[in-house]
Amino acid sequence: MAVSAEFKRRFAAATALRGVLMLLAGLYVVIWPASALTSLVVLGGALLMIDGALGLWSLTFGGGKSGNYWFDVASNALSLILGVLILISPLIATILTVTLLSTIVGIAALAVGIMQISVVIRERALYAHIWPVILSGVSYVLIGLVFLFFPITSSSVMVVFGGVMLIVFSFGLFGWAWKLYQRSKAA
Question: CA-CA-CA-CA torsion for 176, 181, 183, 184, nearest 10 degrees?
């Protein structure tokens, strides 16, 4: 099916708009990482609240019955309550959520690093050079310790990294939009 040049131009404009929005979001995250973390938690709280409310509505009025009725009621009610609590106090929710997630990431990184080091030392005869793997394991252990002892700071750094990735991706979208626009002129 042939696509008109006008449709291609609109698609290029929509792609460029996506790039602009992604660039603005990336700049916001890089410039104000703590505010971006709080915004993400508030957005998550709003989604939990809406999901819980719609789930309860569906169970009550929408005929959305499953085999686990009381489990569904409890999970939707908890989702609604958690969403409300997050929206009431987003700063406390951000600190608790970020600390918990950072602790989980820290423990996982520690476990991976220790496993890498122990495996390479135990099976060093199978490796031509064990130092790169040991260095990798030590890096994981250090990253795990940073996440465990500095959860808010490490999370802010990761948010900034995510913001930088948004900015890089936005330039990719700009390039794609330009290519689509050039194709629409050629058609």
Answer: 140
Q: Is the pLDDT of residue 153 over 90?
A: no
Angle at the Cα of 39 from the Cα atoms of 36 and 40, rounded to 5 degrees? 90
8 Å CB contact between 166 and 36? no
Nearest to 147 by CA among 92, 186, 105: 105
87-119 exposure pattern, b = at least 16 Cβ within 10 A, e = fewer: beebeebbbebbeeebeebbeebbebbeebbee
Query: Residues 103, 108, 111, CA angle at the centre, nearest 5°?
Result: 125
What integer is the mean pLDDT of 73-96?
83
CA-CA distance, 155 to 47, in Å (whole number)? Answer: 21
- 36 in Cβ contact with 94 (< 8 Å): no
Please state, in angstroms and rounded to a whole number, the distance separating the CA atoms of residues 126 and 24: 49
Contacting residues for 40 by C-beta, under 8 A, at least 6 apart: none
pLDDT in tens, 33-52: 888 888 888 888 899 899 98
In 3D, which of 84, 80, 83, 86 has the Cα closest to residue 56? 80
